[in-house]
Amino acid sequence: MMPKVGNKVRLERDETKYPVRGSWARNRGKTATVVEINRAGKGPTEYAVAFGRLTPDEDGRYHTTDKTWFRAWELRVIR
């Protein structure tokens, strides 16, 4: 299931296929909320997530400057 804005996600990925590099180790296993989706460009879609409690504005959007970008294979939607 592809994440949508507002979905709660857990940061997970196949570490044998995508080895740990950079900041991944400190984000592994955390839960977050998808706040933005970037489908621009020719590359894969990227998802901005924010950690902690968020509430949408009256327009249904999440406005935050503290977001981190991930690819779909790094996210698992929590039902």
Task: Looking at this protein, list some descriptive labels.
79 residues, mainly beta, 1 helix, 5% helix, 30% strand
Strand arrangement, major sheet: 4-3-2-1-5
Report the helical percentage: under 10%
Tell me the total number of β-strands.
5
Stretches where pLDDT is under 50 for at least 5 consecutive residues are none
Mean pLDDT: 88
The N- and C-terminal alpha carbons lie at a distance of: 10 Å
Order of helices and strands: EHEEEE
Number of domains: 1
The number of distinct helices, counting runs of at least 4 residues, comes to 1
Q: Please identify the structural class as seen in this structure.
A: mainly beta
Work out the radius of gyration: 13 Å
Biggest sheet features: 5 strands, antiparallel
Shape: globular
- The proportion of strand residues reads 25-35%
Q: Short description, anyone?
A:
This protein has 79 residues and is mainly beta. Helices cover 5% and strands 30% of the residues. The protein has one helix spanning 24-27; strands at residues 8-11, 31-38, 46-50, 68-71, 75-77.
